[in-house]
């Protein structure tokens, strides 16, 4: 079995990506004006017995002002890459992150960084890698998205009881992510406030 790579930790703000490498070195990357591309590549991975293999990885490349940053998936999760396959080698200083983190980050950057275009499931994945402040904002957006789904299907006073179901992806993410849990608290608080104001407006008509 291949060894387990030391992974980096990432925190995402709306316009900043913070990457903490396994050695403790922290980098801040401003996302405004950054070009993001996704490609396949390979990274050398060691197996027990000292054998080295080329392993497929997914690469997220960020470029801004001539500065290049690469974020890749763990090589031990990828299939063995035959030597005849021509692929770029991932930079040695690339940040290795877990697959769910890579997917959430890639989705956010390639999608243009717009919360309004994301589903509740998308927002739940993003909340897991967000800073506390950004997680709170994500929760508010998730609440509004969930309320919209509920109100489209039923009248607001009846349908609000289905809010938990609409927020289920965020509830599931909150079970294993502190940041998603913070986003869920923000979502529930926001939804309660919106619902009270809407109900009051309906009664006053």
Q: What does this protein look like?
A:
- By secondary structure, the chain is α+β, with helices and mostly antiparallel strands.
- It folds into two domains: 9-110, no CATH class; 115-203, no CATH class.
- It has seven helices and seven strands; from the N terminus they run E-E-E-E-E-E-E-H-H-H-H-H-H-H.
- Strands 4-5-6-7 form a four-stranded mixed sheet, covered by helices on one side. It has a three-stranded antiparallel sheet with strand order 1-2-3, with no helix packed on it.
- Strand 5 and strand 6 (67-72) form a beta hairpin.
- Helix 3 (132-153) packs across helix 7.
- The longest helix has 26 residues, at 178-203.
- It is elongated and about 75 Å long.
- The N and C termini lie far apart (68 Å).
- The model has no long low-confidence stretch (mean pLDDT 88).
Q: pLDDT under 50 segments (min length 5)?
A: none
Number of strands: 7
The residue-averaged pLDDT reads 88
| Secondary-structure class | alpha+beta
Percentage of residues in helical conformation: 40-55%
How many alpha or pi helices? 7
Beta-strand residue fraction: 15-25%
Q: Give the number of domains.
A: 2
Q: What series of H and E elements makes up the topology?
A: EEEEEEEHHHHHHH
Query: What overall geometry do the principal axes of the alpha carbons give?
Result: elongated
Strand order of the largest sheet: 4-5-6-7
Major sheet description: 4 strands, mixed
Separation of the first and last Cα atoms: 68 Å
Give the C-alpha Rg: 21 Å
